[in-house]
C-alpha cells in the first residue's frame, strides 16, 4: 500500500508523466494507495494491533501523517469517541455532521436532508480533502476544549506538528509535481483532486456502511444517563459486516468488512478476523445479541443509501 501510494508520486515528482492520461492515472493509483494506507496500515497501527511492538505501531501510525491527516487527532476521534460511543448522537464523532446531513434518527431534522442520499456521493468524494485541509484543525481545537490535550503546551505543540506534516504532504503531493511536470497547474490540481475523490469515496463507503444501516441501532442513555446495553451488546447492535466471502476486499480494505469483529476486539490485528468470525457470531447467538451481516458490499451500499433516504425524509420520532 505504501508503494502504491508513493511510487506514482515519485514518478510525478520526477517529471515523467508527460501526457495528460498518465498524469491522471498516476494520481488515481496513488489515491488507491492512500485509501489502502488508511484502512490497511495506519488503522491497525493506531489501534496498537499491527504489531506487538509499540514502537512499530507508533511508527506505522505516522503513515496517516504522511497522507495528510493526523495520527493524534484520529486516535481521539476514532479509538476513543467512535469505538466507545458507537452510533450515540453527540458522542460518536463519526455521526456528528453538518446541518445538511443526518446520520442518526436522534439528530436534528432539516428539510434539505431529504436529498442527502443523492448528494452524499459528492460529500464522500471531497471528504478526505476537507479532512486534511481543515477538519483536523477544527477537531484538534474541539478536543482541547473537551480536555484531551490538557498538558502544558500540548495543544500548541500538536498544532505546530500537525501544520508541519500537512505542509510536507502538500509539498510532495501537489507543489513538487506542479514544478516538475509540463502540464498546466490547473490540470495537475484537477488530477490531485481526482486522487482525493477516489480516496474519499472508498474510505467513506467502507466506514459508513458498517454503522449507518437500517438494521443497526442508534441508542441513547436512559434517564439516569446510563446506557441500557453493556459495551459488547452495544457494539453488536450498532455494527454490521459485509462481503464476508471476498478475499480480495478483505485484503484491500484491511479486513474492515469484518467490522463486528473489529469493534468487539479492536486490539486484535485484522488478519485474524476471518478465523474469529465463527466464534464471535456463535457468542452473539448464545447471548441473544444481533450479528448483522450483508452478503456483498453492493447490498450494503444499497441499504446504506436507503437508510440515508429514510433519515432525510422521516422525522426522528417516526423511525426510532
How is this structure best described in words?
The chain has 320 residues and is mostly helical. The model has no long low-confidence stretch (mean pLDDT 94). The protein has a two-stranded parallel sheet. The longest helix has 28 residues. Helices cover 62% and strands 2% of the residues. The protein has one domain. Helix 1 runs antiparallel to helix 2, helix 2 packs antiparallel against helix 3 and helix 2 runs parallel beside helix 9. It is globular, with a radius of gyration of 20 Å. The protein has 14 helices and two strands; from the N terminus they run ααααααααααβαααβα.
Q: Could you give a quick summary of the protein structure above?
A:
The chain is mostly helical and 320 residues long. It has 14 helices and two strands; from the N terminus they run ααααααααααβαααβα. It is globular and about 60 Å long.
Instruction: Report helical residue fraction.
Output: 55-70%
If you compute it from the alpha carbons, what radius of gyration comes out, rounded to the nearest whole angstrom?
20 Å
Unreliable stretches covering 5 or more consecutive residues: none
Structural class: mainly alpha
Choose one word for the global shape. Answer: globular
Q: Quick one: how many beta strands? A: 2
Measure the end-to-end span.
40 Å
Biggest sheet details: 2 strands, parallel
Strand order of the largest sheet: 1-2
- Which strand-content bin applies to the residues? under 5%
Number of helices: 14
Number of domains: 1
Amino acid at each position: 500500500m505504501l508503494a502504491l501510494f508513493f511510487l506514482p508520486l515519485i514518478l510525478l515528482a520526477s517529471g515523467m508523466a508527460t501526457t495528460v492520461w498518465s498524469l491522471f492515472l498516476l494520481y488515481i493509483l496513488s489515491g488507491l494507495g492512500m485509501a489502502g494506507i488508511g484502512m490497511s496500515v495506519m488503522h491497525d497501527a493506531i489501534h496498537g494491533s499491527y504489531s506487538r511492538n509499540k514502537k512499530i505501531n507508533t511508527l506505522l501510525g505516522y503513515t496517516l501523517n504522511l497522507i495528510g491527516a493526523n495520527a493524534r487527532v484520529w486516535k481521539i476521534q476514532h479509538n476513543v469517541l467512535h469505538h466507545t460511543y458507537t452510533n450515540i448522537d453527540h458522542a460518536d464523532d463519526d455521526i456528528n455532521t453538518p446541518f445538511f446531513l443526518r446520520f442518526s434518527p436522534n439528530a436534528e431534522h432539516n428539510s434539505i436532508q431529504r436529498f442527502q442520499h443523492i448528494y452524499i456521493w459528492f460529500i464522500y468524494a471531497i471528504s478526505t480533502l476537507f479532512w486534511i485541509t481543515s477538519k483536523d484543525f477544527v477537531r484538534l481545537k474541539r478536543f482541547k476544549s473537551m480536555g484531551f490535550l490538557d498538558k502544558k503546551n500540548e495543544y500548541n505543540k500538536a498544532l505546530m506538528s500537525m501544520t508541519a506534516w500537512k505542509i510536507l504532504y502538500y509539498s510532495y503531493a501537489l507543489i513538487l509535481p506542479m514544478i516538475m511536470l509540463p502540464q498546466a497547474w490547473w490540470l495537475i490540481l484537477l488530477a490531485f483532486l481526482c486522487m482525493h475523490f477516489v480516496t474519499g469515496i472508498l474510505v467513506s463507503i467502507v466506514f459508513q456502511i458498517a454503522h449507518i444501516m437500517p438494521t443497526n441501532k442508534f441508542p441513547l442513555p436512559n434517564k439516569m444517563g446510563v446506557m441500557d446495553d453493556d459495551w459488547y451488546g452495544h457494539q453488536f447492535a450498532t455494527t454490521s459486516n459485509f462481503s464476508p466471502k471476498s478475499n480480495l476486499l478483505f485484503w484491500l480494505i484491511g479486513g474492515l468488512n469484518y467490522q463486528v469483529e473489529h469493534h468487539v476486539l479492536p486490539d486484535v490485528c485484522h488478519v485474524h478476523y476471518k478465523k474469529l468470525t465463527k466464534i464471535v457470531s456463535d457468542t452473539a447467538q448464545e447471548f441473544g445479541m444481533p450479528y448483522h451481516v450483508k452478503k456483498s458490499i453492493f447490498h450494503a451500499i444499497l441499504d446504506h443509501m436507503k437508510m440515508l433516504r429514510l433519515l432525510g425524509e422521516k422525522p426522528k420520532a417516526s423511525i426510532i
